[in-house]
Amino acid sequence: MAETRPTATVKPATSVQVKKSSNMISLIAPVACIIIGYCIWRFVLGNPENFGVGKNNGGFWPDRNDPKTALSRMYLGGIIVPILIGTFLTMLTFVIERFMTVAKASGTSSNADFIRKVQYHLANKNVDAALAECDKQKGSVGNVMKAGLGVYKEMITDNELNTEQKILAIQKEVEEATSLELPMLEKNLVFLSTIATIATLIGLLGTVIGMIRAFATLGAESGGSASAQALSVGISEALYNTALGIGTSAFSIVFYNIFTTKIDGITYGIDESGFTLTQTFASLYK
Q1: Cα distance between residue 36 and residue 38, in whole Å
Q2: How far lies 176's CA from each of 3, 144, 251, 282, in Å?
Q3: Which of 51, 113, 231, 282 is 20 to 30 A from 257 (CA-CA)?
Q4: What is the pLDDT of residues 52-96, one digit of tens each?
């Protein structure tokens, strides 16, 4: 009679718990930042005391002239300026949010040192000490390692599965834990990449609108020197939009690259942790 080999026991559910995380910030932040940007443009940059003409004008977009400060000149850039300010504030909001998330995901110490400690404990067959290191480390690598160690510990005493099936069970747990950690790391990065692209375009739109207004004013006026002065002032005001757009885009690109580099390092640590578990188990429990 042919010998039958035991098949892998199908677990009813993974031990990895799905993380419930709200992403309300991605819905609220852009709208709130644009409203704040408008308030800054309307009431700070457009403070009547900063202008010599148009102090008594009110409404949604008061017509002010003769600015006294550089900031008040920015107000004359037009209605695109508050959108650019809101875009900058949105970028800043997601930079802070990503910084806090990535810092938490990085753990309490170096991931390379943490993995070496786990390898040392596993080499001595001290799984509980390795789990204790995961509790100290925390972060994404620590969470994935802890999930894998839970199954690792079960497989040591399992008498039904062969070594290959046990390693596959550990790999599956690590992959499931990884699939829950990576979305948290990459969430909201799309806002930074989008802002990096559209901020410059919005700035150019504001510049074009400003140039149209400047040339329209030039056409309505008469007199060579006065018209040339009006045109130069209009162009100067319009270029504030370009400066704001390019500055916001540059900051977005820099921070996007910083965060993707850090996330790549964490991802590498997660991959290394899974490799450590499977290779150590294969060498110690053949």
Answers
A1: 5
A2: 33, 9, 35, 20
A3: 113
A4: 876 677 788 888 888 888 888 888 888 899 999 999 999 999 999
